[in-house]
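Hi P.,

Sorry for the delay on this. The queue was packed all week, but I finally got your sequence through. Input first:
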Amino acid sequence: MLKAWLAHPLTRGLDLNDPQTTHLRRRIVREKKFLRQIYQEWYQQIAAALPPGVGPVLELGSGAGFLEDYVPGLIASEVFRCPSIDIVLEGGQMPFANAALRAIVMTDVLHHIPDARRFFAEATRCIRPGGRIVMIEPWVTPWSRLIYERLHHEPFEAGAKDWAFPSHGPLSGANGALPWIIFTRDFRKFQCEFPEWQVLRIRPLMPFRYLVSGGVSMRNLMPGWSFAWWRALENLLQPWMKSWAMFAEIILERVTHRGEGKPDDRSTA
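Then the structure:
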């Protein structure tokens, strides 16, 4: 009964794989003041982490967000047709020329991609040397495991043997622990399989604010005016963020290898 009461009335009982649910979540993100400030902070971090220069920036999983307000010319994509996106695509097969992109960015998306290896192979092909992948993703800590494994609706399997998982729909399949698995537990494996990528930063962050915001699935648990207080509390916990964080900012840079060709000049789509 408590879970049913906490569910946001706009999306209660709706199918996650229905594009209408994503459209309603876009409205929720904009209308919930506390949650909107979280996304604004994340988007500012993503925009600041983009590599210098010009060139297309692709966002995966754009349907519920508003990153286009922070990254001019952003190519907004989603796995199904919904308002406010530019192109429908999947992370494992992207319709761009070799080295056409300056960056790929995403918020809470990597852990929904059922075959991460295919995504990184495509990103390696599509992103030019010096380009980046910038993402905000769930992270594994003692605190986050308690929350994600017991209270969250998505699977969170830090012990999963593989980076892939079965998907029963474009959004219902997930492993929230996947980013940590790739970039901490299996990091040497990642380096061996994808030597084109250098990790510039992994910054654990935000142990409480997303939780008390209610996210996109629950009602507000805290008023918008309390946002600054919660941020101040989290700032005090910075020395212990490896134990408390629920998310991480992850920045990868595409390095140039000897003999690698220059970007071609074909159309980006």
